[in-house]
Amino acid sequence: MSPSMGPSFLQLARERRLAYQHTPGERPGVLFCGGYTSDMTGTKALALEAFCRAHGRAFTRFDYSGHGASSGDFADGTIGAWAEDALAVFDRVTEGPVLVVGSSMGGWIMLLVAPARPERIAGLIGIAAAPDFTEDLLLAEATPEQRRALADQGCWLQDSTYGGDPYPVTRRFIEEARTHLVLRGPIPIKCPVHLLHGQRDPDVPWQTALRLAERLASEDVTVELVKAGDHRLSTPRDLARITAAIERLAAPPFDL
């Protein structure tokens, strides 16, 4: 499929549809999991697709339910539902060994996908990965007014750091996420992992990458801190760091 064509759609149960773009190519392929409120047309997703296309490597990007071109209401989304979306794309669109690249919330999603499909995971690359952000960031930093709205109305409206309308944070979203927290104990992932994090990230503390590295079962974990890096890590130099990590983890031999 050429970059100018529209997305394909994966039909799920209850008339749900996930939008995705897949470029066939060499394995291991790359599956990109985007961030909270983001869609698959972001800078990193398109840049990594172009890189993989230029190098003949398979690449897949997609929109979670309630995001971008996929069906559904964002307010109905949960971490578990979005992890199921990622697994549906993983199972039905990608083939063979896969490198999963997770940006921000996508870094949490990749940590849920990997233990579910260990036999096909060639490696993980986290970009400002934000596991457990619902508990450690959203709820921990909520104002008293937001906490009251959550208790009384079941929702508060969160201003977007990157423009656009405020988005709802629901009680169901917070409570369901507690069943998927990963930083509270060992994480049974043994594949190679590369974590990039900017030390000027205003949204997710860079120390999160160190906490994550400590809890992963894998002995092959690299943490790359970018002193001047922000949360997006989408400058040309940052993108070069990400593609270098893809090349390193995709190079043979990998344990699959």
Please, how many domains?
1
Average pLDDT: 95
Q: Name the helicity range.
A: 25-40%
Q: What would CATH call the homologous superfamily?
A: Alpha/Beta hydrolase fold, catalytic domain
Q: So how many helices?
A: 8
Total count of strands: 10
Q: What is the spatial order of strands in the main beta sheet?
A: 1-2-4-3-5-6-9-10
Give the strand content: 15-25%
CATH architectural grouping: 3-Layer(aba) Sandwich
CATH topology: Rossmann fold
Spans of at least 5 consecutive residues whose pLDDT stays below 50 are: none
Envelope shape: globular
In angstroms, what is the radius of gyration? 17 Å
Secondary-structure element string:
EEEHEHEHEHHEEHEHEH
Beginning-to-end CA distance, first to last residue: 28 Å
Q: Pairing-aware structural class of the strands and helices? A: alpha/beta
Largest sheet: 8 strands, mixed
Question: How would you explain this protein's 3D organization?
Answer:
- With 256 residues, the chain is α/β, with parallel strands linked by helices.
- The chain has one domain: Alpha/Beta hydrolase fold, catalytic domain (Rossmann fold, 3-Layer(aba) Sandwich), CATH 3.40.50.
- The chain is 34% helix and 23% strand.
- The chain is built from 8 helices and 10 strands.
- The strands form 2 sheets. An 8-stranded mixed beta sheet has the order 1-2-4-3-5-6-9-10, with helices on both faces. A two-stranded antiparallel ribbon has the order 7-8.
- Helix 2 (79-92) packs across helix 3.
